[in-house]
Write a structure and sequence with these properties.
The chain is mainly β and about 220 residues long. The protein has two domains: about 1-100, no CATH class; about 105-218, 7 Propeller (Methylamine Dehydrogenase, Chain H), CATH 2.130.10.10. The radius of gyration is 17 Å and the shape is globular. The chain has no helices and 22 strands.
């Protein structure tokens, strides 16, 4: 028997590997699955291209009303009662009872939301794109009820992903480079050339980043 795995795809397809075989789960929604996160095998969320969200309770997928208006590109949480969903226009938080939209970072009034990751219930980071050439992209930390600026980048820099190992250990990918944001701000990390960094993630002490045709473990 192997570990259980969930995956999603086009047409709202959601599949589950039980440890010995794959099964297709009945999904009430049909838009492509864009993101998956869960706190347990009976508590998973699947975000859709059209702002839809479904929840798996171990038995069935049911639609969840969040108010999201765009593609749910990222879902992250610290527990079943602390979940964030991200679209290009909004961050919405679930506290175990209600889904509530968070305000935009006042420092970056119009840039698109690019990625989100957290460390615990009190440490969540948001990557925001540039304000059309007048204000560079940035990384912000949620401190209820607002955002604190942690790093800014020069206009023209394209942020592609963010992953946090701690409050002062935030990794940020761009189209050309990898950065570490600590208490002093962003610092360029010397790393193998991978072309455009398209995703950043980690597990334990290991950091992984994906580029054009290559994946690297740091």
């Amino acid at each position: 028997m192997g570990a259980e795995v969930f995956a999603g795809g086009v047409g709202g397809t959601v599949v589950h590997f039980t440890g010995s075989a794959w099964e297709t789960l009945a999904n009430p929604l049909t838009d492509p699955v864009a993101s998956i996160w869960g706190s347990a095998l009976d508590d998973l969320y699947f975000g859709g291209d059209l702002g839809t969200l479904v929840h798996w309770n171990g038995t069935a997928l049911t639609q969840v009303t969040t108010g999201a208006t765009g593609r749910i590109k990222r879902i992250w949480g610290s527990s079943s009662n602390d979940v964030y969903i991200l679209s290009a226009l909004e961050v919405i938080h679930y506290d175990g009872a209600n889904w509530t939209p968070l305000p935009r970072p006042s420092q970056q009034p119009t840039g698109p939301f690019l990625d989100l990751h957290g460390v615990d219930a009190n440490t969540v980071f948001l990557a925001v794109g540039e304000n059309w050439g007048t204000l560079g992209p940035g990384v912000y930390q949620w401190n209820n009820p607002g955002w604190t600026e942690r790093a800014t980048f020069t206009p023209g820099t394209s942020l592609t992903g963010i992953w946090a190992a701690g409050v002062d250990e935030i990794y940020v990918g761009t189209f050309a480079n990898l950065y570490l944001v600590d208490a002093l701000g962003p610092m360029f990390l010397d790393s193998p050339s991978v072309g455009n960094v398209t995703a950043v993630a980690g597990a334990g002490a290991a950091l992984y980043f994906v580029g054009t045709g290559i994946a690297v473990r740091r």
